[in-house]
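yo

u said u wanted the structure for the complex thing, so here. seqs first:
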Amino acid sequence: MIDQNFYKNTGPYSLDKISEMLSCEYIGNGDLSLNDISTLDTAKEDELSFYNNSKYSVAYKNSSAGVIFVSNELRASRASNLILCEDPYFMMAKAASIFYPNSIYPSFSFSKKVKNLNLDESVKISENTFIHKDAKIGKNCEIGCNSVIGPNVVIGDNCLIADNVSIYYSIIGKNVKIYQGVKIGTEGFGFIMQKNSIQKIPQLGRVLIEDSVEIGSNSTIDRGSIGDTIISKLSMLDNLVHIAHNVKIGQACIIAAMTGISGSTKIGNGTIIGGQVGISGHLSIGNNVRIAAKSGIMKNIKDNQTVAGYPSENILDWHRNTIILKKIRKKNNDKS
Amino acid sequence: MIDQNFYKNTGPYSLDKISEMLSCEYIGNGDLSLNDISTLDTAKEDELSFYNNSKYSVAYKNSSAGVIFVSNELRASRASNLILCEDPYFMMAKAASIFYPNSIYPSFSFSKKVKNLNLDESVKISENTFIHKDAKIGKNCEIGCNSVIGPNVVIGDNCLIADNVSIYYSIIGKNVKIYQGVKIGTEGFGFIMQKNSIQKIPQLGRVLIEDSVEIGSNSTIDRGSIGDTIISKLSMLDNLVHIAHNVKIGQACIIAAMTGISGSTKIGNGTIIGGQVGISGHLSIGNNVRIAAKSGIMKNIKDNQTVAGYPSENILDWHRNTIILKKIRKKNNDKS
Amino acid sequence: MIDQNFYKNTGPYSLDKISEMLSCEYIGNGDLSLNDISTLDTAKEDELSFYNNSKYSVAYKNSSAGVIFVSNELRASRASNLILCEDPYFMMAKAASIFYPNSIYPSFSFSKKVKNLNLDESVKISENTFIHKDAKIGKNCEIGCNSVIGPNVVIGDNCLIADNVSIYYSIIGKNVKIYQGVKIGTEGFGFIMQKNSIQKIPQLGRVLIEDSVEIGSNSTIDRGSIGDTIISKLSMLDNLVHIAHNVKIGQACIIAAMTGISGSTKIGNGTIIGGQVGISGHLSIGNNVRIAAKSGIMKNIKDNQTVAGYPSENILDWHRNTIILKKIRKKNNDKS
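structre next:
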């Protein structure tokens, strides 16, 4: 599940070896070879996953994962090939750092100039643009000054990448426009607070941007942690928008300026989001939803709803709140 | 009305020709030569405009425009030199793309280094600063590293342009300070949603920044669509502010960090706007208005008002709302 | 108190001389030599300070400052070594401009390439990175493309500075990660409005970033005005965060995306702040405070509080407001 083009895997590790490195007990065949880490629903028989929330008990029971981090309290439905630990999420972060030690410091430092590249002659590149020798740039692309395209990034045909843009860990489709100062594939805000320190969660995913997407100036799009951040085709993002790690945005969505979407939230197709909206993490927002500017979204929203306010509610109810308060003010005034 | 220094006009087109290109019927003299596009109130006899909202019926009736896009339902007060279409705004966008085919992909790609320029010797320019050979830079200007000044941009005397700044399609006065990472003249968020596609509205305007303005780090200022985005003299913008296309900000306004102003809104002189405020598009905000931080402005505001809240109201009423809810909570508590 | 590594002091000035330059009367020994400016609580006997708010009357009475700007109305408790003026804050700004004439236009323009530097061989620097010859970079640091490190900036060991970053007037600890597009040490939003002009307040402080801090993409951190902006160790800032001048953030704080903190506010240790929060200036926020996303903070908050809303209140009260309005809506509905 981790893209080996972007992240170098130092595995495999045996169940015995990785348990030893993490000072954990395990149940199962210690010689079992683990090649990668993954989520419960996608892990294969040679992969390591974790289970720390009973909300996902079905996925745990059915997972094909070779080995799973789990606590004694939650292990119930599986008897073998488990690594026992108090905090499975924390141990998963540690394990990710073992498999992918270089993800925490992605190498920004390189000097493979455009001259070394085998680019199509239709590509127009300004001076001081750095394109890693292992990046692929499609036909008719135009890339502005002082932009940086990292290793193994793929950019499709007819894309416009403006000035002062950084793109890492990303696969970008055709006819995409990335305006000035946008940062794509940046480090997600993922970590676990400990007593006196912070355990970073390795950010091992990518950003996938589909065809005909536009992204406004100075916006930031973090790459996925495990799995990808996705902006589907035809979606339009205005300036200064923030898209956190593992967010998935559907097709033909419109997101106005200064809106922020927290980690792992999914947004359907054709949804329109006003400016300065904030959406909590791990939510599911339906298709053709309308979200008024400045709303704060804390719950899932079904298809075709129109919402406003914080916490958001049906937009008519939000307007009613304003009217109610006005009436009470008037009544108080009449009394005094 | 479109600045030919920034946008290359491919016209003229005859009424007959442009109607044919757009597959529309017309009424009037097919030989009429159209040199440009414009808005109803400013269009001249050789220019093409559009009318799609009865709110502007007087402007439509009195317009000097040579030809107007209009629907059959709305055409009433004019009998001739009309192009009939279902969606005049959509057709205007198409026509703009015909007159100005290069506006959608402004050319970010160039390599005319500072060495080729005929700059005053008082100008201080850092390395890796790109200044297009057709830009004009005033005396005593200082321009930081990795900044980009696009073709035909004019910058007055004594300006400070910091690092990682991009400026395109702009005319900038004297004593202006543009801090790090600011993007000026970027693509406006203008398009029309179609069933399975998006029709971009060509952004053919400029950004005009008058004397003694300051713009804080990582702010973004989109250029106008037709017409200009204007920041009048002595106005101060803090960091991470977003100014959309065709916004006009009066003199000596103060705009705190993270505030966003939507398209075509006009703000008077001496108005002070707190941080994280959002202002809807097409509004008129008066002179000497005070807007509390985090307000959401959805209606016009008259001179000298002080407002707060979302939707915003008189700041005293906003405070009263807080008191009312506190009282009701107390009453509920006393009951239970 | 002003760091002479960053700001060149043109003093000393005698009390007589500086009063003459500012056209003010003074009381005291005109020959008294003033070497610097400072705040009431930190000024020494050869330094100039100001007093303009009775809230600080104790600090005024006890100040060791050599000379103090004060109005006739407020001078009461001190009889000598005063400069009398109507607006002490305005005069302090003027005096700061005399002592430090170059603070208003920090010199962004330089061309001291990395090649001239005496860097440790463990440091990895990309092309087009500008490091001033008087900056100090620790071991094992990695600095991305198109970044700028200004004069006298100090960066500790093992730091990651990504692409398109600007750092001026700053002292940065070990193990710090500054992601793409961050601007540190930028000009604070400090000025005094006059009738027909704006008097900038010279920004003469620094940014101090302690060990193991991370700062997310496109965030902006203004330097202090007098005194420093401080981010204490282990604090994590997400993308597009704005930290104004003289803010002090404690240890191990977490600040989610798009939050803005206004000038001179202090935040304790272990405080967690959600996304899109706004905090007014000059506040004191305690230790281990929790602030819900989108809150607007206008008052001090004690240790261990959890708050939400705007104006913010206890988070339970904020939820009760939502329930109250829902009940009233239901009652209204039942009636109709």
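The first helix of chain C runs from residue 15 to 21. The two ends of chain C are 67 Å apart (CA to CA).
cya
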